[in-house]
Structure formats: C-alpha cells, structure tokens
From TrEMBL:
Taxonomic lineage: Bacteria, Pseudomonadati, Pseudomonadota, Alphaproteobacteria, Sphingomonadales
Keyword annotations from UniProtKB, A to Z: Sigma factor, Transcription, Transcription regulation
Record Pfam families: Sigma70_r2
Family: Belongs to the sigma-70 factor family. ECF subfamily.
The keyword Transcription regulation belongs to this UniProt entry's keyword annotation: yes
Taxonomy, superkingdom: Bacteria
Protein name per the record: RNA polymerase sigma factor
Length: 173
C-alpha cells in the first residue's frame, strides 16, 4: 500500500511541476528547435510522465526538462526518417504513367476481383470489405453480422481463397 501511495504522490508531484512550469517548459522546447510543435510535445510529455510508474524524483525539474528534450529529439528523428523514407520511395518509383493497355488490363482485373469477391456470397463479401477496406475489427464485424467470430474468420478465408485462385490466373496469363 505504501508503494501505491508513493506512486500517487510522485504523479501528483510531477503534475504540479508540469502545471507550474508549463510556460517555461514550452519556451525551453521552442528555443531548442521545436517551434510550433512545442505545445504538442508538452502534451505528449504530460501524458508520458503522468502515466509511467515512477518513484520519487530528487530534482524533478531537470528530469522533466531532460525528458522534454529527449521527446523533442525523438520526434525530430522520426520526422527525418519519415522524410528520408518518403524521398527514397519517390525516387525509386517511375515517373511515367502506365500505358493505356496496362490501365485497361488493370481495370479489367479489378472488375474480375470484385466479381470473385461477390461470388463468395453476400456475407463473406461484406465481411471482407468491412475488414480489409473499412478496417473494422473482426470481432466487431461478427457482432454487426450477428455471427460468431469463427464464422467471420471462415468467411474471410473463403474470400482469400477465391482471390488466391484469381491471382494464379492473372499470373498464368
């Protein structure tokens, strides 16, 4: 029970310092290069520091400032990696448009894919579209359709099998 009390006290202490020093921390982040993102970083900092299991901190303000700086650096690194990845991706992609023939073939194949999905039945097709297109969880689809989770999984396998067969046909031609 003492550990829980110390945890509560530590979180309340961190929150109090974050509230009292908010302007100073945001200004620190702005001066370190965060710019307009300083407020967002402060919010992330708040969430991270108040959700963690931390013990008593001897000198909390330097701890908070170091955490803020590290969070800002992490965001910067992630941003740089994302920009590099996007740049590398765009550099490897051909700049030319597909030929009219390829565009027509792709449209025909899309129609065949839609027909293959529809041919599996109404429920499997709906489950597939809800899962793969709409991004709805399988459990939610099961509730929506009034069936068990295993039925949704079986329906998805049915559609995947139909698409695999169609894919083999595309590859053979």
């Amino acid at each position: 029970m003492t550990d829980a009390r110390e945890q509560t006290d530590a979180v309340q202490g961190i929150e109090a310092i974050l509230l009292a020093e908010r302007a100073r921390i945001v200004r620190f982040l702005e001066l370190r290069g965060a710019g307009d993102a300083a407020e967002d970083i402060f919010q992330d900092l708040w969430m991270r520091l108040t959700e963690r299991q931390i013990g008593p901190i001897g000198d909390p303000l330097p701890y908070i400032m170091r955490a803020a700086n590290n969070l800002m650096l992490d965001r910067y690194r992630s941003s740089r990696q994302r920009e590099k990845r996007d740049h590398d991706w765009s550099e490897t992609q051909p700049r030319q448009r597909p030929s009219i023939e390829n565009a027509l073939i792709s449209r025909e194949q899309l129609v065949q894919v839609e027909q293959a999905i529809d041919a599996t039945g109404e429920r499997p097709a709906r489950a597939f579209r809800r899962f793969r297109v709409d991004g709805v969880a399988q459990r939610d689809i099961a509730i929506e359709l009034g069936v068990s989770l295993s039925t949704v999984e079986a329906d998805l396998r049915k559609v995947y099998a139909a698409l695999a067969t169609l894919r083999r046909q595309f590859d053979a031609s």
